[in-house]
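Record type: monomer structure entry
Structure origin: computed from sequence
Chain ID: A
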Amino acid sequence: MIRTIFWKNRSVVMIDQNALPQTECRIVCTDYRQVIAAIRNLAVRGAPAIGVAAAMGAALGALALPPQPTKAFREKFHSICDEIAAARPTARNLFWALERMKKRLDEVIRAGKSNPTAVLAQEARRICAEDIAINRQMGRQGSVLLSDGDQVLTHCNAGALATAGYGTALGVIRAAHAGGKKLHVYVDETRPVLQGARLTAWEMKKEKIPATLICDNMAGSLMHQGKIDKVIVGADRIAANGDTANKIGTYPLAVLARVHRIPFYIAAPVSTFDFSIKTGEEIPIEERRDDEVTAFRGVPAAPKGIKVYNPAFDVTPARLITAIVTEKGILAPPLPAAISRLQKGRI
């Protein structure tokens, strides 16, 4: 199994996703600011993986704090969490993990325990382990949606590298493949940072799952030719009505899938749902650096000084989504009602 991120000897170890696919190496973070840098520069990316990294970064920050009164410790820990939260604005899992860490600290304080740092480190490791288990459960839940012989299109990277291990959308594909279904995966390159070409293609090769890499603008043509049976992608935040933010380029795929009558699935853990926002209009969309578009790994690809628009995500309306796969089950339309039941624990 690909271990994207884990805790070892009071440090956070993660695969450097910026080095893939040429080099498989790891980054060792001993300070929470190093974790923030890794999140910002995409060394670790994917909503669930960012959530795990945030929790572990918060634990690192807590371990570095000197002995101090409980109130002061809590204030400083919250300040550390706020710094981590500012790393990337869209991924709901980042905020969910930090909220969970703060809640755990409050429980420790109320219980009068003398060593909150050990408990916080334990909680971060628990979040990591739970993420892998959740992804495996999600894979089992969603594998029923894929049929033997399906040709499946995916966008960006929603695999083991986007999580602590196993994956969300690719977890569904992995589970179906492990169950004996013969699948072929079409991998969108995913401009501008090429998460599909660099990361998803790498995972498919590593897992020996048949796959073909395509440019983003080829998807519609393949659909027209009848070469795509299903589309499945991950998510970075899902609103209460089912509107879903995912890597830029997801929305046009959903539109194309609807025109060609192809099922369009989302796979995401419950921690990706933001029940506090009604629609996708409220989801903050991160805009990233110009040089991600104008160059690749330092090699210019556009005229110097050209104006750039570089949103990292777009929002797919719930009406274009066939179903959402979670670890709790598959949510079918009407999605607002299904998500309401999910929130109330009735699924």
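Annotation 1: The chain has eleven helices and 15 strands.
Annotation 2: The two ends are 29 Å apart (CA to CA).
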